[in-house]
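R.M. (postdoc): so does anyone remember the format we settled on? I'll just put the structure tokens first.
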């Protein structure tokens, strides 16, 4: 396997759509990258001085196009390493076109985000060669404002892992 620091540097030099393709490649089943390995690729844990309850481990990304990243399950440095359940990246400098994603993964649906507002673009199912089972994108545009989802630009991406499709007030998700 390629050295973690080489992977990190390589991802930082790519344009956004090539970054997306590379991350999808790293999330192929045969790569078997675990939580500890992904944390080393992505960044450092964001401090939590007030010990707020967090549903994910939040990271300060090395890649400056991102304002943040989140990963699950939450495990410490000395905990037994585990497979990913959730991996998310977001940032104002990060920009993907939904049309580019559709060229790679054709099955998608749009869903109103009742809780936060905006619209979810949810890609599912994903080919079996990947360890993730769905990809989620969010836009602040309301569902009824979207004429063609392929025209949308998004500034975040979430990779989901699991075999159960669930629909909630923020849209779709996956569970194990």
């Amino acid at each position: 396997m390629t050295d973690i620091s080489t992977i990190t540097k390589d991802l930082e030099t790519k344009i956004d759509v090539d970054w997306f393709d590379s991350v999808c490649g790293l999330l192929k089943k045969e790569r078997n990258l675990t939580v500890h390995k992904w944390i080393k690729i992505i960044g450092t844990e964001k401090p939590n001085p007030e010990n707020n309850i967090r549903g994910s481990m939040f990271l300060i990304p090395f890649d400056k196009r991102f304002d943040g990243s989140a990963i699950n399950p939450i495990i410490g440095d000395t905990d037994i390493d585990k497979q990913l359940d959730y991996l998310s990246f977001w940032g104002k400098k990060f920009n993907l076109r939904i049309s580019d994603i559709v060229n790679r993964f054709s099955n998608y649906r749009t869903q109103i985000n009742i809780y936060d507002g905006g619209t979810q673009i949810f890609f599912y199912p994903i080919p079996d060669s990947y360890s993730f089972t769905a990809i989620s994108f969010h836009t602040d545009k309301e569902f009824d404002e979207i004429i063609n989802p392929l025209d949308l630009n998004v500034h975040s991406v979430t990779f989901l892992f699991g075999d159960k499709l669930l629909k909630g007030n923020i849209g779709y998700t996956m569970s194990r």
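R.M.: ...and that's the designed sequence above, right after the tokens. Also worth knowing: Residues 16-26 form the longest helix (11 residues). The chain has a mean pLDDT of 94.
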